[in-house]
Amino acid sequence: MGTTVVGTPVTLGANVNPRSLAWLALRLAEINAPDIRQSTATGGTTTTLVDTVGLIQPKDHWLGGTLWILSGGYAGTVKKITDSALSGNSITFSALTSAISAGVDYVVLGPDVTYANLVMAINQALREITVEHVDKTLVGVNGTYEYTLPTDVTRVVGVDLYRSDTLYKSTHWSETEEGKIKFDRGYSPCDDDAIWLHYLETHGDLETDAEEVEDLLELPVLMQLATEKLMRLLYHRYGGDQKQIQEWLADAMAANKERLKVTRRSYGVSVHTSGW
Known about the structure:
This protein starts with 20 loop residues before the first helix and ends with a strand. By secondary structure, the protein is of the alpha+beta class. It has helices at 21-32, 115-126, 219-238, 245-260, and strands spanning 36-40, 43-44, 48-50, 66-69, 78-80, 83-85, 90-92, 105-109, 130-139, 146-148, 156-163, 166-170, 173-175, 180-183, 194-202, 269-272. Helix 3 (219-238) runs antiparallel to helix 4. It folds into two domains: 21-126 and 207-260, no CATH class; 130-202. The strands form four sheets. It has a five-stranded mixed β-sheet with strand order 12-11-15-9-16, with no helix packed on it. A four-stranded antiparallel β-sheet has the order 1-8-4-5, with helices on one face. The radius of gyration is 24 Å and the shape is elongated.
């Protein structure tokens, strides 16, 4: 009662960053969780949100679940629900600095899928997505064949030489175990060549609600992989007691399949990290 179906679109608040951890977790919940509702507050305090239209579920229905605030001054805020009362059509959470007002859009998620589960699934997915960065800090010296790789640059997959406004792709190089890039004899960079190193790196974990994923990372790809991770987490949590998990997974993967039709890119994306 009062819940949405898996994959029901959630309206994004105008000042909520769609690439932040808080919003990504909401997107993942939207795709996969069976007990989620979007509505509008009719009032509230610093610790409660009241909705006489939407919060009509039995007492404690949302207890232990998650609240996302989508609009107003607290847009993008995530709170754990500490109480859920039918008598007052309200949910309770840790204190804000000012009261929730009527007209604030929000989403509530039931306790079967926790915010911690969502965050863990997203970070597990990010650890498997390879991001291609480009470092442009090295400068060529005529006759020099070995260059020490900049800090944190490893797994080099391509080298370009930028010379006189022209970009040349180098195929005569190798990365050594000593952390250097080595050019073949007769193919060293010239003086003042900009050496562009393309290298692979897994995406780092997101640790705060406001932290964002790389700009060029494909969100449908992330959601597909995070869905798989989330279902594994839920299976380990519930085991055979949660019979709906297989149905949730089927619905979620079908929704993700539709989203992935818009892109044919692999998990690797390109992000320029220096030298612009």
